[in-house]
Amino acid sequence: MTSPSTTLSLVDTDPAELTVDAIVIGVHSQTGDQAATSGFAGSLLLASGAESIAAAFDGKLTETLALLGATGGPGEVIKLATLGTIAAPIVAAVGLGPEPTGAAPAPETLRRAAGAAVRALAGAPRVALTLPLPDDADAPAALRAVAEGALLGGYRFAGYKTKPQPTRREPVAEVLVAVPDAADQTAGAEITRAQAVAGAVRLCRDWVNTAPNELRPPSFADAVAAAAREAGLGVEVLDEEALRAGGYGGIIAVGQGSEAPPRLVKLTYTPEAGGNGKRVALVGKGITFDTGGVSIKPAQGMWEMKSDMGGAAAVGAAMLAVAALKPSVAVTGYLPMAENMPSGTAYRPGDVITMYSGKKVEVLNTDAEGRMVLADGIARACEDGTDYLFETSTLTGGQVIALGKRIAGVMGTPELCERVKVVGESVGEPAWPMPLPDDVRKGMDSDVADISQVNAVMDRAGHMLQGGVFLREFVAEGVDWAHIDIAGPSYHSGEATGYWTKGGTGVPVRTLVQLVEDVAANG
Question: What pLDDT digit, counting tens, does each position of 228-251 carry?
């Protein structure tokens, strides 16, 4: 099921003369002495880009917006009928917060503002954004942020309703971004990149939002494989027979409780002329539904476990963006997929599983299934050969407890974890490095196998770290790796905010793509 698409283009026409259904401007909030000395509308300051529109309103635009309740707070959207003052019938003022001193708004501020504005203007087919863009070296990053925010804020999952919804307005179909020169090649390249990356994020969201009865491992594998082949990627799909014959004990164990058998999808991107010689592996957890298995979860909130394949969805979508952007580095994606169900054939606490790497794992909690499938995916990636391995998964509730629902936890090689942190911050998908303490590993010693799947006495202290410690056992020596736990950021159950809509967020597609480009540029 595919969400409605949004097109994006550049324009350098005077914003006041644009024949669109709505035009978006930015407004800053002012506080304290600034507001006190500025009269009635002193709480507002128009952002750059809105000059010609302000002139058309004879300097009364901020006063009118203030009368309508505008404060300039981040993400606030206030609509104003123009009554013929400018060509567009509606002006939408989006809050950018306080004006930065001597700088343009941060890219993430612009990204969230663009997303909030485009979402608020659903029902308007054609919208123009005239938000503040710097004229220096920061211009490409700002334009990229505005473009991404617009495309992601306008996302809406197609859904399953069978009756027309009279109050449901269609997402914005076309977005124009106002720039000084629409023919500028650098600006055009940013729009092209934003369309490729945001398109991948939207597809990731679609996969995560799809009902779990419609996206079980075989159908998920088929969907990813079809999209990858169309994009020109190499595709290999291992079915349950191939997985069993190949010794993928972790994937088989988790998937054996379901009538929908497991899969492992491998996607390969080969750069022209071999690229820069470096190799990147991306591994993503693809549990299409997680009941917890025999160690069954509570009923409350279990329906959100359709999102437990968010890591695999992100890796598959990121690979599609890589295929479009063509970086000069080899990239391979591994998507282990299974459905974790309780049944007479399900794996049990107490089982000892022989993993793809040959290590023996004692199972203590069948709800710690993600690390089982990931361990096999990681071992296969290392066997195939890679210099950098980035793995992402909705792995632990401990991530949400420790870092909340917006910040991912990252564990692994310290230098690579720091690289993930820097890149994540730059794209608006923050991640925070976490340790892998020796005492956590000691707590996972098993009396009968090489390692327990969780703490041997079921102590949940450092639960997020236990996942990272376990996965480290399957990373080959000499491979730099990072485990990105997105249990919180992958799925947004609250109301829409910024460019996040309800449901799948697409985190960390943009981080993975940027990491690949970073390796391509810097090794």
Answer: 999 999 999 999 999 999 999 999
Sequence-distant (6+) residues with CB within 8 A of 108 are 145, 428
Catalytically annotated residue among 79, 126, 244, 297: 297
How many residues comprise the chain?
A: 523
Q: According to the annotation, is 290 in a ligand binding site?
A: yes
Instruction: Identify the DSSP state of 180.
Output: S
User: Three-state DSSP class for 389?
Assistant: strand
| Residue found by looking up tokens 């399957």 in the block | 474
Cα dist. 403→56, 389, 430 in Å?
A: 47, 23, 10
Residues contacting residue 398 through CB under 8 Å, at least 6 positions apart: 460, 462, 463, 464, 465, 466, 467, 487
Q: Which of these is catalytic: 156, 205, 371, 380?
A: 371
Q: Do residues 44 and 72 make contact, with C-beta atoms less than 8 angstroms apart?
A: yes
63 marked ligand binding residue: no
Q: Is residue 285 marked as binding? A: yes
Q: What is the pLDDT of residue 274?
A: 87
Do 183 and 14 contact (CB within 8 A), yes or no?
no
Residue ranges matching CATH 3.40.630.10 in the chain:
199-522
Report whether CATH 3.30.499.10 matches the domain 7-159+168-183.
no
Q: What's the predicted TM-score (pTM) here?
A: 0.96
Per-chain mean pLDDT for the chain: 95
Helix (H) or strand (E) holding 217: helix 217-231
pLDDT in tens, 51-71: 999 999 998 999 999 999 999
User: Is 14 assigned to a binding site?
Assistant: no
| Residue 371 annotated in active site | yes
CATH 3.40.220.10 domain range(s) in the chain: 7-159+168-183
The CATH class given to the 199-522 domain equals alpha beta
Tokens 């023919």, located at residue: 183
If we measure between CA atoms, which residue out of 79, 78, 75, 70 comes closest to residue 30? Answer: 70
Q: Are 269 and 233 in contact (CB under 8 A)?
A: yes
Query: Per the structure block, which two tokens stand in for 33?
Result: 């002495």
Name the helix (H) or strand (E) containing 199: helix 185-209
| Structure token digits, residue 5 | 């698409």
Confirm if 464 and 485 have CB atoms less than 8 A apart.
yes
Which of the 8 DSSP states describes residue 273? G
Question: Alpha helix (H) ranges present in 81-136?
Answer: 107-120
pLDDT score recorded for residue 33: 54
326 is catalytic: no
Which pLDDT value is given to residue 135?
A: 87
What secondary structure letter does DSSP report for 85?
S
> Parallel, antiparallel, or unpaired: how do β-strands 491-492 and 503-504 relate?
antiparallel
